[in-house]
Amino acid sequence: MFASPTETDIAPSGSLLGLLQRGRGDGWLHALAAPRAEAVAALERCVLHDPRQDWQLEHRSLYYARLYAELGADLDAVEAHLTDPEDALRDDEERTGLALSVLGHLTSYGDRRALRLLRRYAVSGANWRWALDELAVRDDDAGLRALGPRILARFPADAAGEAALTRAVRDSFEPRPWHLWAGDPARPGQRARLERALEHGDFDRWQRQLRPTGPQPGWSVASVLEWAREGYEQTPRQWREASAARCLGAVAGPEDRGTLLAAAAEGHPAARAAALRHLAERGDPDVFPLIEAGAVAADEDVATAAVTAFARMRGAAALARARLWAERADDLGACAAVLLAGRGGPRDAPLVLAALYRAVRTHGTDARELRPLVEGVGRLAVPGAVPVLRHVYRETSSSHLRGHTATALAATDGSFPAGFAVECLWDCEEDTREVGARCATTVDSRVVERLRRLATDPAEQAGVQTAVRGRLAGRAGGR
Question: What is the value of pTM for the model shown?
Answer without folding.
Answer: 0.89
